[in-house]
Design brief:
Length: 160
């Protein structure tokens, strides 16, 4: 596992040396590392200055199989990713009622990647207690509401 962390850190450092994507001014990247029994998850929250009142935030999750070191798509962790989507959406609504989030707000988020877009603005990654999910700030609700977060316990996802 430590070898995976070291390798990933070197890769990110190499990418950072090449600079941000064209037309994006990256203010910074905040990493989070989480380990479950089978996976290493590295999540990067990128702050992007788009010359507006608030920066844009884009999260990137990289999930590695601890046994092989290969990157894994979160959707491929489940036999039925659409069932997992329904559970994630329900958890996002239940865990963020104070923000006023509704089922309609999260209806379009999915762990199944869309060509050219990935799963943005939803990012999910495995952790010890379950599947951690976040919708980046400003994508579905006003920026002041902050990120929408939820953890779906592994037990709830077992049939997925």
């Amino acid at each position: 596992m430590d070898g995976l962390v070291a390798t990933f850190t070197r890769e990110v450092a190499g990418s950072a040396a090449n600079g941000p994507a064209p037309h994006r001014m990256s203010d910074g990247v905040v990493p989070t590392i989480d380990r479950s029994s089978h996976f290493l998850s590295v999540v990067l929250l990128e702050s992007i200055d788009l010359a507006g009142a608030h920066p844009g935030y884009v999260s990137h999750a990289y999930i590695f199989d601890a046994a092989t070191g290969r990157e894994v798509s979160v959707a491929r962790l489940f036999r039925d990713p659409h069932r997992a989507d329904r559970l994630i959406r329900a958890a996002l609504v239940a865990g963020n009622r104070q923000s006023g989030v509704t089922a309609r707000d999260v209806a379009g988020v999915s762990i199944v990647p869309v060509r050219g877009k990935g799963t943005s603005p939803l990012v999910c990654y495995p952790g010890r207690t379950g599947l951690h999910c976040q919708v980046d700030p400003g994508w579905l609700l006003p920026f002041a509401a902050g990120p929408l977060t939820a953890t779906v316990p592994w037990k709830a996802l077992a049939a997925s």
